[in-house]
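Posting for a labmate who doesn't have an account.
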Amino acid sequence: MDDILYTVRAALQPFLQVSSLTDLYNAYKTMPVSYALVGHCLFLAALAPEFKHRFLVHFWMTFLAGFGGGTLTAVLMMDPVRAPIGVLANNSIGVTWFICWWLMVYSPFNIVNRIHSLPPIKMVTKLCVTFMRANLIINRVDLAVTMFPGVIAAPLILGTLAGSGGKLIMDAIRHHWGGLPGPAEASVPTFVWRSAVLAAGGYWAACKYTSLLSSQEAAALVITVLLAHSLLSDMFGDKYTDFTYPVARVAHSLSLVPMPAVEAAPAASKAAKKAAASQQQVKQQQQSAGAAQNGGQKPAVQPQQSNSSATSQAKVVVSEAPAKAASGKNLAVKADSSSISKNGKKQESKKSK
């Protein structure tokens, strides 16, 4: 316990001596990366609990949610020395992730996940995720400017993917497996994508394009803004702390690009609906034309109906004939019996005489 308190004091001591953005950046650099990595892994391993019964899908999906941005940008940069794939270049990432993932998902009695679900602890691990994400965005922008000098798209694209690539990949996997509760990040961008764009673009514009701030000052500003949002969103909710939404509204209004809504249908689906509607209209027209042709052939069909009615009448006559015959036989039998009784009475009267 004393060691933990000493570590916390040592981590907070540089922040008490901050007098400028450069000092703040240096204070951020004194933060133990290994502890931030543990919090980062714990927070992300708790995502997508509905996939726990598919351990392999859950393992890689949550891993890519946390390290997908760095992996994707490393693949695009194609420089294993300056931008290596973390899990392939450093044992600490793979080992830390595996241990944290197992503890969060399959620990006995789910005890680690229950402890992590406590608001103060979850707030700390979320800060670790934000801290790692902000540093990755800054790192990718710096590398893009160095590797692709004079290219504007390189730092903006790579910085944005570094901050939002994990969410993009995770949503794609969850959509494939039918576990995505809402629209994907690529369909309806949220704070994750918008903050990555603003962080990458703001950092590049402030210290690389205009030299308004030094790299350390701009990095300290980006990290501080994202960390402050992480804290405030836990206390007041994302609805009241999303500073990127007004910026997005203004940008969409000025560019005349419609801002995607949650219930908006993609253009491809709208085109498919129109095509289906046109096909239905064609089918209805064909059916109406066929009905008109059948209407002209109705007189030829009527004799068949009359023949069928004649046959039904014949059946009725045939069925009535046996009944009449049977009734006739009954009358004849009654007549014979009455005549026999009369003859018998006459013979008896003669004998008596």
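Reply:
Got it, the structure tokens are right above this. Residues 21-255 form one domain.
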